[in-house]
Design brief:
single chain, alpha/beta, Ribosomal Protein L13p, Chain: A, 4-stranded parallel beta sheet, 6 strands
C-alpha cells in the first residue's frame, strides 16, 4: 500500500515572485479577485491554506480603475470610530480624488482571510496611483488580468 501522507511545503521550498498589474480601465472587482488569488497563492500547485505561499503584487495606475453601472455615484466606504453615532460614509468619488490607492487596497483586503495570515498577506500588495513605482529592483513581471 502506498504512503498516504499530505504534502506541506517547507519555508525553503516556497518561492515568492513579484508581479506588476496595470489597473487602467479594469473593473475593480475583477481586478481585486485576481490580485487576491495571486497574493494568497491559489495559482500555485503547492497552495496550502494556512501558509503564506503567495506572491507580491505591485499595482500601478490605481486612479484609472473603473466601476460598472451606477456604482461610481452610489458606492460609499464605511468606517466607524467606536463611539456611538460616529460613523463615516466616504463617497467613492472623494476616495478616488484623495486616495485612489485605498480603493484597490480595501477591495483586496475584503477578499483575504480575516486573521493573522490575512494581515500578513495584505503587506504583499503595493498600490500606486500613477505609473511610477519604487520596486524596479525586484523586477516584477507583468500579470495579465
Amino acid at each position: 500500500m502506498a504512503d498516504m501522507t499530505t504534502y506541506t511545503p517547507k519555508a525553503e521550498d516556497i518561492e515568492h515572485h513579484w508581479w506588476l498589474v496595470d489597473a487602467t480601465g479594469k473593473p475593480l472587482g475583477r481586478l481585486a479577485t485576481e490580485i487576491a488569488r495571486v497574493i494568497r497563492g491559489k495559482h500555485k500547485a503547492m497552495f496550502t491554506p494556512h501558509l503564506d505561499v503567495g506572491d507580491n503584487v505591485v499595482v500601478v495606475n490605481a486612479e484609472k480603475v473603473r466601476l460598472t453601472g451606477k456604482k461610481a455615484q452610489q458606492k460609499t466606504y464605511f468606517r466607524h470610530s467606536g463611539y456611538m453615532g460616529h460613523e463615516k460614509h466616504v463617497p467613492y468619488a472623494w476616495m478616488l480624488e484623495k486616495h485612489p490607492e485605498r480603493i484597490i487596497e480595501l477591495a483586496v483586503k475584503g477578499m483575504l482571510p480575516k486573521n493573522n495570515l490575512g494581515r500578513t498577506l495584505q503587506k504583499k500588495l503595493k498600490v500606486y496611483a500613477g505609473a511610477e513605482h519604487p520596486h524596479q529592483g525586484q523586477r516584477p513581471e507583468p500579470l495579465d488580468i
